[in-house]
Amino acid sequence: MSGRLDRRGFLAVVPGAAVAAVLAPHAAAASAAAAADMEMVVLAAQCDPVKDGTGLTPGAGPSVRLVEQALVDEGLLAAQYVDGHFGTATRTAYGRWQESLGFSGPDANGLPGKGSLTALAEGRFSVTRLITPGSRTTFQGFPFNTRTVAMLTEAQRLAKVSLVVEQGSYSPGDDPTSAGTHDGGGAVDLDAEALTAAQRTAVLTALRRVGFAAWLRNPSQDDWPWHIHGIAVNDTALSTPAQKQVGMYYLGRNGLANNGQDDGPQVTKTTWEQYRRTA
Ligand SMILES: [Zn+2]
Fold first, then answer.
1. How far is the centre of ligand 1, averaged over its atoms, from the C-alpha of 149 (Å)?
2. Ligand 1 geometric centre to CA of 229 (Å)
3. How many angstroms separate the alpha carbon of residue 216 from the centre of ligand 1?
4. 230 CB contacts (<8 Å, ≥6 apart)?
5. Is residue 20 over pLDDT 80?
6. Rounded distance from Cα 260 to ligand 1 centre (Å)
7. Mean pLDDT score of the chain
8. Strand 35-37 and strand 126-128: pairing?
9. Ligand 1 centroid to 175 CA: how many Å?
10. Ligand 1: distance of its center to the CA of 127 in Å?
11. Distance CA 154, CA 272 (A)
């Protein structure tokens, strides 16, 4: 049973329900005007947990606060965490919300998806800029979702270099050095062995322009031949380690265990949806 249903049941049986019923229309009218931008909420859910402090993701604060207040109302989050920072406490609470809806495993890892977010918002606030990873498909024989394939296709067009996939998404255990980053959606490895330095830079730049957190990896970094590892920012099916890499990318790091400086081409960080609105 979901927390929302619990709450309705509670209102139905306790004395004072009549008072709540009188007050409810006003509360509903107030919240109806509020809107949470799903793109911003999901971006904050990737970027905020890896920060040292409680800094906000630019533009995400008001939307995250609506989500946090709803989690408080559901009894899943302590009120002190309603601060617009989608940190680990909020992520854990959101995961419990997903579990209450029947999701499990990676579908309850605390990264908001369209279904869980619209369910949480129901009767409280509206949700704008809904995003989904699309349906499962294949590209060059590897598993992906349609959003990631669209991103790769556009990056290939921009780079004018043929992309060669060597690992896709939804591939737990395929590459032990990837530490689970390919378990969910949005992950890709591209062969870089045969590319010139200029082509590697062109591909990396194009991937970043369309909304991937992407880095060139050399054999000394993870014992794999030269390749480009990419994670699609704001893919709501990302594994937990992949979400963390997006956060590290936005912090200007390399996404590796050594937490080194990002050594890739400096491109304005963006998401696929933001790219499509401006391209
Ligand atoms: Zn990879």
1. 16
2. 4
3. 10
4. 187, 188, 189, 190, 207, 212, 213, 214, 215
5. no
6. 17
7. 89
8. parallel
9. 8
10. 32
11. 10
- Give yes or no for a contact between 28 and 262, defined as CB atoms under 8 angstroms apart: no
Q: How far is the CA of 121 from the centre of ligand 1 (A)?
A: 34
Q: DSSP of 82-136, one letter per residue? A: -SS---HHHHHHHHHHHHHTT--GGGGSS---HHHHHHHHTTT-EEES------E
Distance in Å, CA 187 to ligand 1 centroid: 7
Query: What is the average pLDDT across 157-182?
Result: 88
Query: Which pLDDT belongs to residue 56?
Result: 97
Q: Higher pLDDT residue, 75 or 219?
A: 75
Residue labelled with tokens 């969910």:
184
From CA 124, how far away is CA 7, in angstroms rounded? 13
**CA–centroid distance, residue 75 to ligand 1 (Å):** 38
Rounded mean pLDDT, 31-41: 87
**Residue recorded with tokens 């990264």:** 111
- Return d(Cα 176, Cα 113) in angstroms, integer: 27
Residue ranges covered by each domain of the chain: 3-128, 136-278
129 Cα to the center of ligand 1, angstroms: 28
pLDDT greater at residue 31 or residue 253: 253
